Amino acid sequence: MRASLIQIAVDEDEPVNSRRERVSSLVRETAARERPDLVVLPELWTTGAFAYEAFASEAEPLTGPTYDAMSEAARDAGVWLHAGSIPERAASESDDGSGAGDGGSGAGDSVLYNTSLVFSPDGELAASYRKIHRFGFDQGEAVLMDAGSRLVTVRTPDTTLGLATCYDLRFPEMFRGLVDAGAEMFVVSAGWPERRREHWLLLARARAVEDQVYVLACGTGGTHAGVPQAGHSVVVDPWGEVLAEAGDGEEVLTVDLDPAKVAATREQFPALKDRLLGMDPPPGR
What we know:
Largest sheet: 6 strands, mixed
CATH class: Alpha Beta
CATH topology: Nitrilase/N-carbamoyl-D-aminoacid amidohydrolase
Radius of gyration: 18 Å
Strand order of the largest sheet: 6-5-4-3-1-15
Number of strands: 15
Shape: globular
Number of helices: 7
CATH architecture: 4-Layer Sandwich
Helix content: 25-40%
CATH superfamily: Carbon-nitrogen hydrolase
Distance between the termini: 41 Å
Protein backbone atom coordinates (compact mmCIF):
# COMPACT_ATOMS: atom_id res chain seq x y z
CA MET A 1 0.00 0.00 0.00
CA ARG A 2 1.30 3.44 -0.89
CA ALA A 3 0.20 6.69 0.79
CA SER A 4 0.94 10.30 -0.15
CA LEU A 5 0.54 13.12 2.39
CA ILE A 6 0.21 16.55 0.79
CA GLN A 7 1.48 19.16 3.26
CA ILE A 8 -0.15 22.35 2.00
CA ALA A 9 1.30 25.78 2.75
CA VAL A 10 -1.57 28.15 3.44
CA ASP A 11 -0.94 31.61 2.03
CA GLU A 12 -3.22 34.15 3.67
CA ASP A 13 -3.33 36.18 0.45
CA GLU A 14 -4.54 33.22 -1.64
CA PRO A 15 -8.35 33.24 -2.11
CA VAL A 16 -10.14 30.13 -0.89
CA ASN A 17 -11.51 29.34 -4.35
CA SER A 18 -8.03 29.56 -5.84
CA ARG A 19 -6.58 27.32 -3.15
CA ARG A 20 -9.38 24.81 -3.68
CA GLU A 21 -8.52 24.63 -7.39
CA ARG A 22 -4.80 24.41 -6.66
CA VAL A 23 -5.21 21.59 -4.15
CA SER A 24 -7.47 19.68 -6.52
CA SER A 25 -4.69 19.89 -9.10
CA LEU A 26 -2.13 18.77 -6.50
CA VAL A 27 -4.18 15.66 -5.76
CA ARG A 28 -4.33 14.76 -9.45
CA GLU A 29 -0.65 15.52 -10.04
CA THR A 30 0.43 13.55 -6.97
CA ALA A 31 -1.64 10.57 -8.02
CA ALA A 32 -0.19 10.64 -11.54
CA ARG A 33 3.40 10.97 -10.30
CA GLU A 34 3.45 8.85 -7.14
CA ARG A 35 0.74 6.26 -7.87
CA PRO A 36 -0.57 6.15 -4.28
CA ASP A 37 -3.56 4.17 -3.05
CA LEU A 38 -4.33 6.84 -0.43
CA VAL A 39 -3.86 10.62 -0.48
CA VAL A 40 -4.15 12.69 2.71
CA LEU A 41 -4.69 16.46 3.10
CA PRO A 42 -4.40 18.64 6.24
CA GLU A 43 -6.98 20.16 8.56
CA LEU A 44 -8.94 23.27 7.52
CA TRP A 45 -6.69 23.95 4.52
CA THR A 46 -9.37 26.06 2.87
CA THR A 47 -9.23 28.71 5.60
CA GLY A 48 -6.24 27.96 7.81
CA ALA A 49 -6.71 26.30 11.19
CA PHE A 50 -6.11 29.53 13.15
CA ALA A 51 -8.04 31.89 10.87
CA TYR A 52 -10.95 31.94 13.30
CA GLU A 53 -12.64 34.94 11.72
CA ALA A 54 -12.99 33.00 8.46
CA PHE A 55 -14.74 29.97 9.91
CA ALA A 56 -18.26 31.38 9.68
CA SER A 57 -17.76 33.30 6.44
CA GLU A 58 -16.18 30.33 4.62
CA ALA A 59 -18.31 27.59 6.23
CA GLU A 60 -20.09 25.35 3.76
CA PRO A 61 -22.56 22.47 3.89
CA LEU A 62 -21.11 18.99 3.89
CA THR A 63 -21.87 18.66 0.17
CA GLY A 64 -20.61 22.13 -0.71
CA PRO A 65 -17.88 23.34 -3.09
CA THR A 66 -15.00 21.56 -1.33
CA TYR A 67 -16.97 18.32 -1.34
CA ASP A 68 -17.60 18.68 -5.08
CA ALA A 69 -13.97 19.53 -5.88
CA MET A 70 -12.52 16.72 -3.76
CA SER A 71 -15.01 14.14 -5.00
CA GLU A 72 -14.05 14.96 -8.57
CA ALA A 73 -10.33 14.91 -7.73
CA ALA A 74 -10.60 11.49 -6.04
CA ARG A 75 -12.49 10.09 -9.02
CA ASP A 76 -10.09 11.57 -11.58
CA ALA A 77 -7.07 10.34 -9.62
CA GLY A 78 -8.56 6.95 -8.78
CA VAL A 79 -7.43 7.14 -5.14
CA TRP A 80 -8.83 6.97 -1.66
CA LEU A 81 -8.75 10.61 -0.60
CA HIS A 82 -8.79 11.92 2.95
CA ALA A 83 -9.64 15.46 1.90
CA GLY A 84 -8.65 17.07 5.18
CA SER A 85 -11.34 19.03 6.99
CA ILE A 86 -13.66 21.92 6.26
CA PRO A 87 -15.63 24.32 8.43
CA GLU A 88 -19.00 22.64 7.99
CA ARG A 89 -22.25 24.52 8.49
CA ALA A 90 -25.10 22.22 9.50
CA ALA A 91 -28.69 23.41 9.33
CA SER A 92 -29.28 22.25 12.91
CA GLU A 93 -27.63 20.22 15.65
CA SER A 94 -29.16 16.97 14.37
CA ASP A 95 -28.31 17.54 10.70
CA ASP A 96 -24.99 16.19 9.49
CA GLY A 97 -25.75 16.27 5.80
CA SER A 98 -25.31 12.52 5.39
CA GLY A 99 -27.34 10.84 8.08
CA ALA A 100 -24.41 10.27 10.45
CA GLY A 101 -26.22 11.71 13.46
CA ASP A 102 -23.59 13.58 15.49
CA GLY A 103 -24.97 15.85 18.15
CA GLY A 104 -23.69 19.25 19.16
CA SER A 105 -23.88 21.72 22.00
CA GLY A 106 -24.67 24.81 19.97
CA ALA A 107 -27.96 26.63 19.89
CA GLY A 108 -30.06 28.09 17.11
CA ASP A 109 -30.75 26.99 13.58
CA SER A 110 -27.16 26.66 12.39
CA VAL A 111 -24.03 25.13 13.92
CA LEU A 112 -20.42 24.76 12.76
CA TYR A 113 -18.24 21.66 12.86
CA ASN A 114 -14.64 20.90 11.91
CA THR A 115 -15.48 18.05 9.54
CA SER A 116 -13.18 15.67 7.67
CA LEU A 117 -14.24 14.06 4.39
CA VAL A 118 -13.01 10.74 2.98
CA PHE A 119 -13.76 9.75 -0.61
CA SER A 120 -13.45 6.41 -2.35
CA PRO A 121 -11.72 6.11 -5.74
CA ASP A 122 -15.07 6.44 -7.50
CA GLY A 123 -15.61 9.84 -5.88
CA GLU A 124 -18.26 8.69 -3.42
CA LEU A 125 -18.20 9.92 0.18
CA ALA A 126 -16.94 6.97 2.25
CA ALA A 127 -17.09 8.76 5.61
CA SER A 128 -17.23 12.10 7.37
CA TYR A 129 -15.81 12.78 10.82
CA ARG A 130 -16.66 15.75 13.02
CA LYS A 131 -13.72 16.66 15.23
CA ILE A 132 -14.41 15.65 18.81
CA HIS A 133 -11.74 17.60 20.72
CA ARG A 134 -11.81 21.30 19.79
CA PHE A 135 -8.75 23.40 20.51
CA GLY A 136 -8.72 26.83 22.14
CA PHE A 137 -9.89 26.30 25.73
CA ASP A 138 -12.20 29.33 26.04
CA GLN A 139 -11.60 30.89 22.63
CA GLY A 140 -11.21 30.09 18.94
CA GLU A 141 -12.38 26.72 17.67
CA ALA A 142 -13.51 25.64 21.15
CA VAL A 143 -16.24 28.27 21.22
CA LEU A 144 -16.90 28.79 17.50
CA MET A 145 -17.49 25.15 16.58
CA ASP A 146 -19.51 22.31 18.07
CA ALA A 147 -17.99 18.97 19.01
CA GLY A 148 -18.58 15.75 17.15
CA SER A 149 -19.55 12.69 19.16
CA ARG A 150 -18.71 9.65 17.00
CA LEU A 151 -15.55 7.68 16.39
CA VAL A 152 -15.21 6.99 12.67
CA THR A 153 -13.37 4.24 10.82
CA VAL A 154 -13.15 3.58 7.08
CA ARG A 155 -12.54 0.17 5.57
CA THR A 156 -10.42 0.19 2.40
CA PRO A 157 -9.26 -2.88 0.42
CA ASP A 158 -5.90 -2.71 2.22
CA THR A 159 -6.68 -1.73 5.80
CA THR A 160 -9.05 0.02 8.21
CA LEU A 161 -8.44 3.72 8.77
CA GLY A 162 -9.23 5.45 12.06
CA LEU A 163 -9.92 9.17 11.62
CA ALA A 164 -8.68 11.92 13.93
CA THR A 165 -8.03 15.64 13.67
CA CYS A 166 -5.18 17.68 15.18
CA TYR A 167 -5.91 18.28 18.90
CA ASP A 168 -7.48 14.80 19.08
CA LEU A 169 -3.89 13.52 19.05
CA ARG A 170 -3.54 14.50 22.73
CA PHE A 171 -6.32 12.16 23.88
CA PRO A 172 -5.13 8.53 23.88
CA GLU A 173 -8.49 7.14 24.98
CA MET A 174 -9.94 8.17 21.63
CA PHE A 175 -7.34 6.12 19.78
CA ARG A 176 -7.94 3.10 22.00
CA GLY A 177 -11.56 3.38 20.91
CA LEU A 178 -10.53 3.44 17.27
CA VAL A 179 -8.39 0.32 17.81
CA ASP A 180 -11.38 -1.42 19.41
CA ALA A 181 -13.37 -0.44 16.30
CA GLY A 182 -10.83 -2.22 14.12
CA ALA A 183 -8.46 0.56 13.07
CA GLU A 184 -5.01 -0.50 11.90
CA MET A 185 -3.92 2.88 10.59
CA PHE A 186 -4.62 6.30 12.12
CA VAL A 187 -4.99 9.19 9.70
CA VAL A 188 -4.52 12.50 11.53
CA SER A 189 -5.28 15.69 9.61
CA ALA A 190 -3.88 18.75 11.35
CA GLY A 191 -3.01 22.44 11.43
CA TRP A 192 -0.46 22.18 14.26
CA PRO A 193 1.49 25.28 15.35
CA GLU A 194 5.27 25.44 15.00
CA ARG A 195 5.85 26.33 18.65
CA ARG A 196 4.56 22.89 19.71
CA ARG A 197 6.17 20.90 16.90
CA GLU A 198 8.00 18.54 19.25
CA HIS A 199 4.69 17.60 20.87
CA TRP A 200 3.31 16.79 17.42
CA LEU A 201 6.15 14.43 16.61
CA LEU A 202 6.23 12.85 20.07
CA LEU A 203 2.48 12.23 20.19
CA ALA A 204 2.37 10.76 16.69
CA ARG A 205 5.01 8.20 17.71
CA ALA A 206 3.29 7.54 21.04
CA ARG A 207 -0.05 6.76 19.40
CA ALA A 208 1.70 4.38 16.99
CA VAL A 209 3.61 2.54 19.74
CA GLU A 210 0.81 2.21 22.28
CA ASP A 211 -1.80 1.10 19.73
CA GLN A 212 0.55 -0.82 17.40
CA VAL A 213 -0.70 0.89 14.26
CA TYR A 214 0.60 3.04 11.45
CA VAL A 215 0.13 6.78 12.00
CA LEU A 216 -0.18 9.07 8.99
CA ALA A 217 -0.13 12.62 10.37
CA CYS A 218 -0.54 15.37 7.77
CA GLY A 219 -0.09 19.00 8.78
CA THR A 220 0.22 22.38 7.09
CA GLY A 221 3.03 24.78 6.32
CA GLY A 222 2.84 28.52 6.00
CA THR A 223 1.20 30.86 8.50
CA HIS A 224 -2.44 30.96 9.59
CA ALA A 225 -3.61 34.29 11.00
CA GLY A 226 -0.08 35.07 12.17
CA VAL A 227 0.53 31.59 13.63
CA PRO A 228 3.50 29.80 11.99
CA GLN A 229 2.68 26.17 11.25
CA ALA A 230 4.76 23.17 12.29
CA GLY A 231 4.73 21.33 8.98
CA HIS A 232 6.72 18.10 9.58
CA SER A 233 4.01 15.73 8.40
CA VAL A 234 5.12 12.31 9.52
CA VAL A 235 4.50 8.61 8.91
CA VAL A 236 5.21 6.24 11.80
CA ASP A 237 5.10 2.43 11.73
CA PRO A 238 3.63 0.15 14.46
CA TRP A 239 7.01 -0.09 16.22
CA GLY A 240 7.25 3.69 16.46
CA GLU A 241 9.84 4.04 13.71
CA VAL A 242 9.55 7.24 11.68
CA LEU A 243 9.38 6.14 8.06
CA ALA A 244 9.27 9.64 6.59
CA GLU A 245 9.09 13.23 7.81
CA ALA A 246 8.49 16.42 5.86
CA GLY A 247 10.09 19.82 6.37
CA ASP A 248 8.16 22.99 7.18
CA GLY A 249 7.07 24.09 3.70
CA GLU A 250 4.71 22.73 1.07
CA GLU A 251 5.74 19.16 0.33
CA VAL A 252 4.45 15.76 -0.75
CA LEU A 253 5.49 12.84 1.44
CA THR A 254 5.04 9.40 -0.17
CA VAL A 255 5.62 6.16 1.73
CA ASP A 256 5.13 2.47 0.99
CA LEU A 257 3.37 0.67 3.85
CA ASP A 258 2.83 -2.99 4.68
CA PRO A 259 -0.60 -3.41 6.35
CA ALA A 260 0.40 -6.94 7.44
CA LYS A 261 2.99 -5.39 9.75
CA VAL A 262 0.23 -4.35 12.16
CA ALA A 263 -0.87 -7.94 12.82
CA ALA A 264 2.74 -9.11 12.90
CA THR A 265 3.67 -6.48 15.49
CA ARG A 266 0.70 -7.30 17.67
CA GLU A 267 1.57 -10.99 17.51
CA GLN A 268 5.26 -10.47 18.22
CA PHE A 269 4.61 -8.08 21.12
CA PRO A 270 1.00 -8.73 22.25
CA ALA A 271 0.67 -5.83 24.70
CA LEU A 272 -2.89 -5.02 23.65
CA LYS A 273 -4.00 -8.41 24.97
CA ASP A 274 -2.89 -7.38 28.47
CA ARG A 275 -5.26 -4.42 28.68
CA LEU A 276 -7.36 -4.42 31.84
CA LEU A 277 -8.69 -0.92 32.39
CA GLY A 278 -11.46 0.27 30.15
CA MET A 279 -12.34 -3.21 28.94
CA ASP A 280 -15.94 -4.42 28.72
CA PRO A 281 -16.74 -6.56 30.58
CA PRO A 282 -14.21 -5.88 33.36
CA PRO A 283 -11.79 -8.75 34.09
CA GLY A 284 -13.18 -11.38 36.46
CA ARG A 285 -16.83 -10.59 35.70
